[in-house]
Amino acid sequence: MQADSSAAWAGPLAGIRVLDFTRVLAGPAASLALADLGAEIIKVEPPGTGDETRTFPPIKDGESHYFLGNNRGKKSIVIDLKSEQGLQLARDLAAKCDVVVENYRPGVMDRLGLGYETLSQINPRLIYCAISGFGMTGPLRDRPSFDIVAQALSGVLSVNGEPGRLPIKLGLPMGDLVGGINGPIGILAALHERHLTGRGRLIDVSLMDGLIGLLGYIAQLAFFTGENPVPQGSQHPNLVPYGAFPAKDGAIIIACLTNGFWARICDALGFPEAGPDPAFDTLQKRRDIRERVNGMIAEQTQLYSVDELVELFTEHQVPHAPILGIQEALTQPQAVAREMVVETEHETLGTIPIVNRPIKFPGSPQPVPTAPPALGQHTEEILRDLLDLDPEQIASLRDTQVIA
C-alpha cells in the first residue's frame, strides 16, 4: 500500500496540534500514538544530531532504524533551546498548540522557562503532558531511569524468564512504551475535559507507575498469597496447559485459558479419555499437577510438525499459535490483510516500509502515515506557516544558528 495524499481525513485528532519536546522512546511513543490518530506533531530537536536516536546503529544512508521506528507522521523543526531567541520561538509555538509533550527529568523544562506554569499563562488551554521515569514526586523523582530500571523497580522483571533462573527483561521495552500508552490516554481525557471547562491541565506520567498499573492479576496474586510470584517462562502461573510445547520442527503455543478448552486439547492430541477424567477436569487440579499435565501434552505434540499441530488445533478450535519471527509476523496473511506494513516516501531514503497505524476506523480510511522526518525537514515551513515569519526573519535565525 502506497501513500495516498488525496485521502483527506487525517483521523479523529485532525486539527489538534502537539508541540513535541520528546526524545529517545517513552515520549516519542506517546506523540507517535497521537500522530497515528491524526494530530499534527511538531517535533522540536536540538541542532547537531537532533533526537539522540538518530545516531543509534544500525544506520542506513544516514538514517537510524531506531528513529524511523518511532517517529512516523511527525514534522521536525530544529531550534537551539540554549539561546533566548530559541526559547522565545518555542514559547511562541506553544501559544499556537493544543498539547505539549516532554520527557525530560522533572524540573528541566521549568529551568528552561518552558514548564507548565509558564506556558499555561501564555496559553491557558494548553494540555501539558510530562513523562518521566518516576514522576514529579517521591524520593526517586530526580533519578535517571531507563526501560530496564522501570521494569526492575516495578516488579515486572521479577516475573519474566524461566523458572529457577535469573529474571530476564521483556523483549519489548515496555518500561518505556508504557509512556506511549498512558500519555495519550491522559491527553485524550484532558482534551475532553477542556471541551467542558475551556482550560488545559498538567499531566504527570511515571513509567514506573505505568508498569505497576499493568501488573493486574499478578499484583492481586501477591496480595492473596502474601508471596512474590516467580518467573514461569511462557507458562501461566495458574492455568495449565498454557505456554510453549515442542514439535518435530520447533514449538507451538497452546493456551487453555478456560476449562472448556481442556477436552478439545485432549481430543486434538488423541487422548479424549483425559477430558472428563476426574484427575484433570478442573483448573485447580491441573495446576496442582502441572508437570504431569505438561508432560502428557509435550509427549504428543513432539510427534507432529508445527504445521500439523496448527491444522489439528484449528480443526478442534483450540487457542494456539506458531511462534513467528519478526519478519514472519510482519508478512503473515493476517498482518497483510490488516495493512500493518505500508510503504511511504522518505526525504532521503526514498520508498521505505513502515509499520502502519494499529487503530482502524472502518468506513473512514486514513492516508498512509508520512515518513519519519529528516532532521529539521519542516523548520522553515513551521516558522512560515505557524508563526508568520518572513524569509528575511527565517534567514536571520539561521545565520545566528538559533535554527538549523
UniProtKB/TrEMBL annotation:
EC number: 2.8.3.-
Keyword set, alphabetical order: Transferase
MF annotations from Gene Ontology: transferase activity
Root EC class: transferase
SUPFAM superfamilies, A to Z: CoA-transferase family III (CaiB/BaiF)
Signal peptide span: none
Gene3D superfamilies found in the cross-reference section: Crotonobetainyl-coa:carnitine coa-transferase, domain 1, formyl-coa transferase, domain 3
Official protein name in the record: CoA transferase
